Amino acid sequence: MKRRSFNQLMLAGLILPGMWRNIASAGGAPRVVVVGAGFAGATVAKYLRLWSQGRVEVTVIEPGSGFVSCPVSNLVLGGSRQIQDISRSYDVLRQHGIQMRQASVTQIDAGKRQLKLDDGTHLGYDKLVLAPGISFDYSHLNAVTGLDLQQHFLHAWKAGAQTVALKQQLQAMPDGGVFALTVPALPYRCPPGPYERACQVAYYLKQHKPRSKVLVLDANPAITSKRALFEKAWAELYPGMIEYQPVSELKQIDPAQRMVRTTFDTFRFDVLNLIPPQTAGRIALDNGLANAEGRWCDVDYVSYESKQAQHIHILGDALDSGLPKSAHIATSEAKVCASAIIDILAGQAPDPAPVFANTCYSYVSADEAMHVANVYRYDEKSREMKPAPGGGVSKQHSAGEAREARSWASNIWHDALG
Amino acid sequence: MRIILTVLLSLVGVTPLTMAGQADSHIRSLAASCAACHGYEGKSQGETPSLAGMPPDQFLDRMRHYRDMDDDGSVMNQHAKGLTREEISLLAGYFACVVPDGTACNTYRQKADGQ
């Protein structure tokens, strides 16, 4: 180490606290409003408080009264978890000095940097973070079927009341029945999720209604994630029980006859779990924050600032990032974004090339799981997050990986909400 | 440069966690990404090993092992290959000094001081 650089850095180190004077000079503490308290929203709120050492005011707008985790929610269908096992309170976020407001945003005024809430109040911000998750797009399906499908069939693709209701439908299904599950074309939330769900439903049926079947109607040409692993798990654990139909987009449904027509065939079902095509959360689409295709949002992957509006950052499943829409990616993006917002408020440049990991487990039974893991690194040429070398999936499902998956859930829940 | 800065801030008594992103937001955010499996601040709530306070030599040995071994289908084998040598080295210091006055952090500071 050269003495000169040492001294320069020493000086830099000692004057660091001064940067916060720059932040506060705009008139009090800067205010960040976060919309949505799922994995991304809860994490960005918590880390904004922690990494600014409480110097940034954070308000979270969330219509729900508590957090319910999508990861592990398929195990509620399988019967090895209850809904309360995957539910968490927002109390700890309050202990971090975050103001929680149970409300919905009805309008964003990007020019005035102001939100309108459904209780009629307005809320100003210096920076806005949208973590709106997904919305379901039934428009095409309703048009072709002439039905309001959202009224007829559960998705259970946002964990909570629908997860419990779908479990009840499964319990009420007669032995020998068919549990049909539709998979939309990519991109959708949690690529391996539908195939994990097939495992969990089969796990339940194998114990309680062994003459029944799971029918997977996939709009995609093949299983979209961990394909060989799922095929192996289905064959070994649930032989003859899971029927998989690729290239099977929904074309028509007859709720009375309990029949569904797809691209090539017609099938009978007893329970239909319709996982519809998805878009970014409506709040983003309705406020002009979608990209040219109109379904997802584009951001700068250094700061997560929207390409459509200044001072608005967008995270998680709402993005057209090309990355899997997973909880680990959502929380990792939230940390990069929190760090960047703090730097920007302090007049400093954020990390120009962020890097983060994604680890995602799927349970094939109550006590066996498998994973996909990748590091993603910012590519300055394409300005996108690209897979780094390495990465891959398990050799096979195992009990050891289920223990890792349990540890993953404990840690990510605690990290976001603890 | 990052190593120098991390060492320097350790020497002046500012630990990587309290020095916040000013010193190295790249490593701080990367280390935070490890939390999904290894816990907030590297303190695991489950079976996955805690990284907080791990002796840096142990951290480096394990990561080198994961990085250099053939694909065994393990999560860490797949992640370690995606990180740079510099990132792995800085993560070792970061997690050692999550426990600021612990043995691991003192060892790390002494080694860094001697370089």
TrEMBL record, chain A:
Q: Which residues form the Sulfide dehydrogenase [flavocytochrome c] flavoprotein chain central domain?
A: 163-276
Which InterPro entries does the record match to this protein?
Answer: FAD/NAD-bd_sf (IPR036188), FAD/NAD-binding_dom (IPR023753), FAD/NAD-linked_Rdtase_dimer_sf (IPR016156), FCSD_central (IPR049386), FlavoCytC_S_DH_flav-bd (IPR015323), FlavoCytC_S_DH_flav-bd_sf (IPR037092), SQRD (IPR052541)
Q: Looking at the record, which segments are called Disordered?
A: 383-406
Which protein are we looking at? Sulfide dehydrogenase (Flavocytochrome c), flavoprotein subunit
Q: Determine if Magnesium is one of this entry's keywords.
A: no
Question: Which residue ranges does UniProt annotate as crossing the membrane?
Answer: none
Q: Where is the Flavocytochrome c sulphide dehydrogenase flavin-binding domain?
A: 352-417
Instruction: Please give the organism.
Output: Methylobacillus rhizosphaerae
Domain named FAD/NAD(P)-binding: residues: 31-147
Q: Which domain of life is it from?
A: Bacteria
Q: Name one GO molecular function term.
A: flavin adenine dinucleotide binding
The stretch of residues making up the signal peptide is: none
Keywords on this record?
Answer: FAD, Flavoprotein
Automatic annotation (TrEMBL), chain B:
The alphabetical list of record keywords is:
Heme, Iron, Metal-binding, Signal
Pfam families attached here? Answer: Cytochrom_C
Describe the location of the Cytochrome c domain by residue ranges. Answer: 16-99
Kindly indicate whether the keyword Aminoacyl-tRNA synthetase belongs to this entry.
no
Please give the superkingdom of this protein's source. Answer: Bacteria
Instruction: Show which residues constitute the signal peptide.
Output: 1-20
Q: Which GO terms describe its molecular function?
A: electron transfer activity; heme binding; metal ion binding
Could you tell me which InterPro entries the record lists for this protein? Cyt_c-like_dom, Cyt_c-like_dom_sf
Under which name does UniProt file this protein?
Answer: Cytochrome c553
